[in-house]
Write a structure and sequence with these properties.
The protein is an alpha+beta fold and 110 residues long. The protein is 25% helix and 70% strand. It has one domain.
């Protein structure tokens, strides 16, 4: 009779272990942070050079007489232009994840 009682208690314990510890029966949610890459736009002023024309009156002499002629000259000017660029940066955001746990873990957590 003690053998039957031991087998009965062992079967009950085995069923409880399987139900509460082994089978993932409950889905629980938890918060975590996730790293992701995001595009970040930045603006810079980039210099560039440009030749700007201007005119001047230049005197010249022929047979002791002075004449004026118009000459076009160029000067180099540095200008700045706004430019947009993009770069990839790592950022974090909170996310909700789901996981299947056993009933025993779910009961302990609550």
């Amino acid at each position: 009779m003690s053998t039957k009682l031991a087998i009965g208690i062992g079967a009950v314990v085995l069923v409880l272990v399987v139900v509460f510890c082994v089978l993932p029966l409950k889905e629980v949610a938890y918060e975590a942070t996730e790293n992701y890459q995001a595009s970040e736009t930045y603006y810079t002023s980039e210099p560039y050079t440009e030749l700007i024309p201007y005119t001047v009156q230049v005197p010249y002499t022929i047979d002791h007489q002075t004449y004026w002629k118009t000459v076009t000259k160029y000067r180099e000017v540095t200008l700045y232009e706004d430019a947009a660029g993009q770069t990839q940066v790592w950022q974090e955001r909170p996310v909700t994840l789901y996981k299947n746990v056993s009933l025993l873990e779910a009961l302990i957590a609550y």
